[in-house]
Design brief:
By secondary structure, the protein is mostly beta strands. The chain is built from 1 helix and 10 strands.
Length: 128
């Protein structure tokens, strides 16, 4: 077992417990990116592009993230990262950013996408 989520029959080890306090850092995403199931929990999704780039959240029909999922997004690049839904009529993304349905993340800023209900996500953190 490594990190979360755990499955029935997994053995809790010291290495597993110690991993709870650290992120697995993804390779840099240098183009528009759509979230996948392995991005949840303790993974840091690194966006890195010199120009504007998109981080997209798919519909439940495409990727079945459980309610309570948290995806952490870090913008390493100079280009702003826009966080939005792949299908805006189906998946709702809201934040306190300037554009509620498509917040942006400036260079060296981090935000977390939290799934609160079916096809419903809230973005919290350093968004504009």
């Amino acid at each position: 077992m490594q990190g979360l989520p755990a499955s029935t029959g997994d053995v809790l080890t010291a290495a597993t417990v110690n991993s709870f306090v650290s992120f697995t850092v993804s390779s840099d995403q240098t183009a528009d990116y759509t979230a996948v199931l392995t991005d949840q929990y303790q993974t840091l999704v690194v966006m890195n592009k010199a120009t504007a780039v998109a981080f997209k959240i798919p519909t439940d029909a495409s990727v079945a993230f459980p309610v309570g999922t948290a995806i952490t997004i870090y913008n390493k690049g100079a280009g702003a990262v826009t966080v939005s839904a792949v299908t805006s009529g189906t998946t709702t993304v809201v934040s306190a950013g300037a554009v509620s349905a498509a917040p942006t993340l400036a260079q060296y800023k981090t935000c977390v996408a939290i799934k609160l209900a079916a096809n419903s996500w809230t973005i919290v953190g350093a968004v504009a």
